[in-house]
Amino acid sequence: MIDAIPRDNSTGAGAQAGPASNTDEADVARFSKAAFEWWDPQGSFRLLHRLNPIRCAFVAERIELEGARVADIGCGGGLLSEALALRGARVLGIDASPETIAVARDHLEGISATATAPLHLEYRTGTAEEIACERPGDFDLVTCMELIEHVPDPGSLVRACAGLVRPGGRVIFSTINRNPKSWFLAVLMAEYVLRMLPKGTHDYARFVRPSELARWGRGCGLMVDEIGGISWSPAKGGFAASEDTSINYLISFVARRSLGADPEGWSPGRDSVKEDRFDG
Question: Which among 3, 132, 250, 258 counts the fewest CB atoms within 10 Å?
Fold first, then answer.
């Protein structure tokens, strides 16, 4: 069966992540080759342009962005990083592709020239694991959008993101569920039939169920507080927030105050959201 492939090829939440090791070089090369298209709303990343308002709104509803210290992991060309900075956040965008970071910096330079106020946004090449070693607990918010399905060790990525956020801060992921419907629509239709994405963009075996992501987060001291779906809206010709998590979804975690002090009303293994019902 299509949905029988487990997503367990990770170090697990309790293992120590090795810095700079959790990248798929073929994937990085593929994205680097298309880096010049990042800010073309009709180019290879056009679906991310349509997703971005949904992602930004989900984030803004859960944290006051004005003055917030944000790490945007897997920032790509800076679509979300810029949007958060324009809302007043102090953003560090991280991506493993030097070519992509160069594009992000060029675009930032262009908009900074006409901005009415300075944007607190910087970019650097690297991985979550590297930054977590350098700046543990340094951020109020960590965003990781459409990246976890591209790395060899998702557990390591979750652990690194958890290590970056301060106690009480938030970690928000956006990714693709793993079930027959997501294979049919996100891979077969999107890549091979409708050509909305380049062929080979996604590996179905790397898709992540909400329950799996929640389990990795829980092992790192993260509590699920919200899971939201994203659906294609033919009427709008784009994406819309929804309760359907069977394909694209966002998941928000709150970091425990400390290893010895859980958020009120929560204990290990008991999140405020029963995430397995979102697996589709």
Answer: 258
Give the model's pLDDT for residue 235.
67
Whether pLDDT at 11 is above 80: no
**How many CA atoms within 13 Å lie on the side-chain side of 6?**
3
Alpha helices per DSSP H over the chain: 25-33, 46-60, 79-86, 98-112, 128-134, 154-164, 180-182, 210-219
CATH: 3.40.50.150, 3.40.50.20, 3.40.50.300, 3.20.20.140. Which one for 28-257+267-278? 3.40.50.150
What is the C-alpha to C-alpha distance for residues 207 and 101, in angstroms, rounded to an integer?
A: 25
pLDDT tens digits, one per residue of 122-164:
999 999 999 999 999 999 999 999 999 999 999 999 999 999 9
Contact 54, 126 (CB under 8 A): no
d(CA 221, CA 259): 7
The amino acid at 18: G
Neighbour count for residue 114 (Cβ, 10 Å): 6
| Residue 1, token pair as written in the block | 């069966």
Q: How far apart are CA 243 and CA 70, in angstroms?
A: 26
Output the pTM of the full model: 0.86
